[in-house]
Amino acid sequence: MLPDYRVRQRDYLLEISRALTSRLNLSEVLRLILQQATDMLNGQAALIALVEPDARYTIRQSYGIPQPLLDQLKPILHQTENVDEAVTALEHNLVAIAERVGLGFWEVVSLPLKVEGDEFLGALYVFRMRGGGFSRDDRRILQSFADQAAIAVNNARLYEQLTHEKRRLDAILEFSADGVVIMDGAHRIQMFNRAMSNLIDVPAAEAISKRFEEVLVLKNKRAGATLEEAEAKGWPLVGSSQTLFVEGDLQRRNGGVISVEIAFAALLNREGRLVNIIADVHDLTRFRAAEEMKATFISAVSHELKTPVALIKGYASTLRRADAKWDEATVRESLKVIEEEADHLAELIENLLDASRAQAGNFKLTPVELDIDDLVVRVAKKFEAQTQSHKVIADIASDMPLVFADEARITQVLSNLISNAVKYSPPGSEIRITGRATPNEVIITVADQGVGVPPEERSKIFERFYRSESAIRRGTPGAGLGLYLSKAIVEAHGGRIWVEGNGDDRPGSRFSFSLPRAA
Ligand code: ADP
Q1: pLDDT tens digit string along 309-339?
Q2: Under a CB-based contact definition with an 8 Å cutoff, are residues 402 and 369 in contact?
Q3: Which of 303, 344, 461, 500 to mutate to test ligand 1, by most ligand atoms within 8 A of the CB atom?
Q4: Which of the listed residues 347, 431, 446, 468 should we mutate to test ligand 1's pocket, taking the one with most ligand atoms within 8 A of CB?
Q5: Where are the domain boundaries for CATH 3.30.450.20 in the chain?
């Protein structure tokens, strides 16, 4: 038979360990340990110091200890390097410090908190005023309590880490740029992140619990295998080492589709049973657009290059023919064409170089105080002299305020807009260039009576290599660079460029750009 007080102690310990191990919140566990240790030893105060992940030894929780004592303790703990030895050293220190700050504590017992493998988690210190010292029995009981406490601290810490990891993982998934869907083995959706909702315009709350195929409707499969096709062949157990992917278009809720690539990963449990399938949905819209742009670019540029080259070659070989004698006028005319076409080629190449400079963001400008009305009149005159087909009118006041701009570059913008107006409006029609001033800017407008730009194309036409369907269909020459470069130039000056209709159902378009006024 155990003596009565032993039975009570044993029951007490049992109760404590039950209470401790059922809790997972670290600060709650620490508070409980302190309270019960103080209780058990008839003490007045206690503290727990733990080895933090950064290896520093820190007071994590205290009970009944006045702030002045805590303040003196903190630096001592922080300086401690060998924590294992420090536990007992500290025990002596504590008595001295307690006395120094005028506290009546004159007994301290320290108990290391260790778990399996002797891993040192920290230590528990209990203070009491009553004399008599801690008996061996006290220490023994306390040590078995400390062992329980260590397990509880360890569990709570692991749980804290796990919760932290989970939160981090949730955040990564939620804010991933790719759509992420986690489903069970039967394809029931369990997690649906924000990017996924945006991609197909379906809120997560609606997708959860539905079948993957019901929410992500794949059309026009282009490559790879769908989940169902792969599973029919034994995936993920057979061939699981290969990444499963499928490429195609996903149906969006509001109609329309989005081009995607989906990669699937299988999560198996220890017994090899399928627990989860994780789908990563990557938006290919930009990639497709870039590919399309590249194709349009190649065809437009090669067409643009071929035409002058063919003309130059044609005229040059005609002139070279040994069997023909050309009069001087014909020779001059032919050389003129050759020269013009060579200029045209040089201009195209220069534009391509400019486009790549603009994209890299290093357009060099040499701005000066510029008489913009004078420039408009000069450029209009040049076009008026060149084209017999259109009337180019500079309708601008001669007292426009000066602007601060690079003359050659603004000439390039004006020439682009006027030559587009010529290209996209019928012969005989009028092209009018006007100007107006606001307190900070000067706005120049080139208006034509041509085919116009439909509202849905108005933002796209300033993109690199963009050419409208109708321009391509009609076979109008061009590489889709003029407006892109004009925009880059105007914006490098701190201005804007835009297009509007002519209003009131009148045909044509109005291209305007603004430039800052000279100070
Ligand atoms: P390009 O003329 O070489 O195709 P731009 O960048 O100059 O390239 O123009 C892009 C597109 O904008 C053209 O393909 C055309 O569809 C449209 N566009 C430009 N200027 C006009 C205009 N004045 N009227 C109608 N459409 C225009």
Answers
A1: 999 999 999 999 888 888 999 999 999 999 9
A2: yes
A3: 461
A4: 468
A5: 179-283
> Ligand 1 center to residue 473 CA distance, Å?
13
The pLDDT-based confidence of 439 (bands split at 50, 70, 90) is very high
Distance (angstroms) between ligand 1 centre and the Cα of 467 equals: 6
Provide the β-strand partners of residue 52. Answer: none
Alpha carbons 402 and 423: distance in angstroms, whole number: 30
CATH 3.40.50.920 holds for 179-283: no
pLDDT at 272 over 70: yes
Domain 288-360 carries which CATH code? 1.10.287.130
Residue range 368-516, CATH number = 3.30.565.10
For 352-384, the pLDDT digits (tens) are 888 888 878 777 889 999 999 999 999 999 999
* CA 423 to centroid of ligand 1, rounded, Å: 8
- Which residue from 347, 416, 453, 470 has its CB within 8 A of the most atoms of ligand 1, so it is best to mutate? 453
Determine the atom of ligand 1 nearest the C-alpha atom of 450. Answer: 24
Q: What is the pLDDT of residues 137-164, one digit of tens each?
A: 777 777 888 888 888 888 888 898 899 9
CB–CB of 117/145 below 8 Å?
A: no
Fold of 4-171: Beta-Lactamase (3.30.450)
Cα separation, 143 vs 513, in Å, equals: 83
In whole angstroms, give the CA distance from residue 181 to residue 518: 56
Percent with pLDDT over 90 in the chain:
43
Instruction: Say which residues have a Cβ less than 8 Å from residue 502's Cβ, sequence separation at least 6.
Output: 447, 449, 452, 508, 509, 510
pLDDT of residue 106: 66
Task: Specify the domain boundaries for CATH 3.30.450.40 within the chain.
Answer: 4-171
Q: Over the stretch 38-80, which tens digit does the pLDDT of each residue have?
A: 887 778 888 898 888 777 778 889 988 888 778 877 776 666 5
pTM of the model: 0.56
DSSP 172-233: HHHH-SSEEEEEETT-BEEEE-HHHHHHHT--HHHHTTSBHHHHS-EEEEEEE--HHHHHHT
Q: Which is more confident, 437 or 67?
A: 437
Segments of the chain assigned to CATH 1.10.287.130: 288-360
